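Onboarding guide, step 5: your first structure request.
Type a short instruction followed by the sequence, for example:

Predict the 3D structure of this protein.
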Amino acid sequence: RPFAVAALLGCHATIAVMLVLAVEQVGLLGLAFLVHSLFASLLDTACDRMIMDHVPADELGRVSACTRAGFVAGTSLSAACLGWTLSRYGLSVSLSALLAAGILASLPMLLVREAPGAALLNFARCGPPPRRVPFSRFLRRLGLALRRKRALQLLALCFGLDAAVGLFELPFSIDLLQGRGWDPATLSRLQAGLALVSGTAGAFAIGLWSDRAGPVRPLRALLLTSVVTFALASTLIAAGLLGSSAPLILALTNALPGLLIVALMPALLRASRGRAGAATQFEVYMATMNLGSVAGTALSGWLAPVMPLAALSAMVAAVFLGAFLLIGRGDVLAPRG
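The system replies with structure tokens like these:
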């Protein structure tokens, strides 16, 4: 909690500094965004560690759904509200509104105690004091944990899933805009709406299912659904039916990635618990997913001109099939003993 509070204060202070910068000072604004992102990453890591320390294993699915829903809803609402205020009132008013909203959103972190016996204004660490280890030893332990077979399989899974989605999304969107004549604003609103629905109602449904049945069954079901979805998309595209089936393909391929994250997070939290640097190990998994998304999108820029969209979709289906078979072995997502 002390790190989370410090991160929140850092985020607020960064936005306050941006209020005194002029719009023309692009370099300083970019540096402020960088500092804000660092504090936001610290907040994310601190919250993940509090989840590991206090949330029972049979409630991780609901917590995963809550974090996903908060991210999606917050992103959608802030983009809509700030887009309107920026165009109508300018940067200063938009940043002031953002700062006020951020302070309001940070009240639960300041007012809710981390543990039932903790004092309201006591930011000391809960539980036994941590054993201090040199930073170099901490990195060596983290490296050893991530070099284990199971950790490497989870890293490959995180990278492969997001890379596969990125491999298809960009060429598909370009084809809709340039080949099918879709309006960019309409496509953007449709994608945002699909992400909002899947990231809220869909996320809570998957989270509840994960808590009831464990993380393996929901994840395998979503992976098998993804295999069928992209295989069907490949067939429809190859048959020349993309025009009539584009809305269905768009809906399925936009909804599934967010649901996969909700289903995968409880297993990653369980795999990271109990180790030195547990929060850091979990963030490595999350960073690997982001890296996979970037790599897949970059690779799609090279493959799209030389490979038909149907072949790309079939390649993505093959990746999801491999992930489905890997999860089916049973030991990859089993809780740590």
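Each response can be followed by summary notes, for example: The chain has twelve helices and no strands.
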